[in-house]
Amino acid sequence: MKVLFNTLFLFCIGGVLTAQSEQNTCEDSRAYLGIYSQGVSEEKADLLHLPNAEGSLITEILIGGAADKAGLQAFDYIYGINDDRTDHGDDLTDLLGQYKAGEQATIHLIRKGKPLDVDVVFGRRTDSHRRNREDTEKAFLGISQRDTEKDEVGVTVSVIRNSTASEIGLKDDDVIMAINGYPIIDWSDVTTAINMMDAGASIEVAYEREGQFYTAKGTIRSQSQTRREPERERETKVEYAFLGVFSNSISKEKAHKLGFDNPYGSYVSGVIPNTAAERAGIEPFDYIYGVDEYRTGEGQSLTYILRKYQVGDRAKIHYVRRNRERQVEVRFSSREEARHKETDKCDEAFLGVQSSHAYVERTGVSIDVIRTSTAENIGMEDGDVIIRINSYTMIDWTDIGAAIDNLSVGDAIEVDWVRNGREMRGSSPIMSYCETKTKQAFSSSRVAISRSDQSARSVAPLDLHNVEVKVSDILSDEAREMERRYKVRLSIGNNINLRSLKITPQPDKGSFTLSFVLPGNGQTTVRIYNDVGRNIYVYESGSFSGTFNDDVDLSQNGLGTYYLMVEQNGKTAGMRIQVRKG
After folding, report:
1. Which letter, b or e, does each residue of 481-516 get, where b requires 16 or more Cβ atoms within 10 Å of its Cβ?
2. What are 141-172's pLDDT values in tens digits?
3. What average pLDDT does this structure show over 7-14?
4. If we measure between CA atoms, which residue out of 220, 74, 66 comes closest to residue 140?
């Protein structure tokens, strides 16, 4: 079931404004409803008896916004404004585009199966904000989605021991049909229902068990209350869970190309030996989007979710593999248990391709071929566009790096590529770097390590008690080199007045805290690249202003140089971050 993750803030009417004063006027005039919402499939619309499948199902109400003031609620389904209705040509964003902040309109919606009209005065972007509460206050039912082949309404669940779900009588394989009177069609409905509640609130769950229908009631507890055990209360040091994967955040565009409904997950590029991930069978190119009942989302990365768990905890990892949603139970281990394989670069697998820097209209990576390499042996030529390696889709250079990083010399490699509109295929055992690098290639200026991070598998975990971080400006020479070798465009300077930048080691968490202040307001993207062009952190916000603070996991990339890029409203700031021994 496809889901669109959407925050409803609208663009100015009448074209693009370019002057700064006009831009500020544009920003102030936008009609802002102040909700998070999802689209629904035709199947879901039919099950909920909705008037059409082109409306928006509210998943969260932002505090202080127009929707909050008008009394709109999560699970309200908006299908019209005044005389206009959503349809295939016009979604809710299009309808709202006719209005400005301060104008009044009537919102047409469905609430618990009944039509309702609500008068709303549209606000501005700065009027609303997401609720900020401590993790211990968040409601935690204690269920995870169970993989099932049944074509059924509701969500089949597994129940976490000592949780609220267990306490009120839910069991594995129960099918949840409703929570607090709201119909549950899919997992996104479960997330919406739980996010509406605080720990200590009353909860009523309607469910099916072996063809019989039941209702369970109780008081929902927090996640920390669920997992607290007497011996853990006496511990003074918390050791956070370690999954054991190298992973990357991906752009919304890449998520769409790969068919991922949730664009905020983590794309696995490697698995560390002797870790929870390896024991659970997680593989490169798996896309992890949830742990237990938590799902990755805007402002909630996989790293953030894993901070809720400790070494020894058990959980279910939700991921996509080859277009199929799966789940697997893991028992989290510690970083110290991991084994990091040390390899000589000479003995590493080497395909022998490098970026041609040519634009590719659809999916794939345009390459040039290094002489005497595996790529040349299987018939590839300069200008070919690689679309798959060993059946995995290649969207960008990071994917090619991950595919090669996880091969050993002598392993079979099968490459699909496009040449002049014709799809071709070749396969061969992959050679080593030194086998490829003949004397002729050695002196050639075209020779380059084509993988995005040859050293990824041999990076030892950082001792965050013994590191120091230095922040400085990006030099023009290194910016040119990053663009030439890895097609990563870095900004030199600070055009958005970014202030108070800090990267602080957090040894107890096994991560760094990234913080800075942005006095401006607008659509904001934060990215961090390592020194071989891999995008290791992405944060995207529809609207942001003020103090930014988030956990960033640099430990899997080790000591070295990183590049921070912050973009807001088309302007950028770039900084170099050096992590070295203290």
Report:
1. ebeebbebebbbebebebeebebebeeebbbbebeb
2. 988 877 655 556 788 888 888 889 999 999 88
3. 38
4. 220
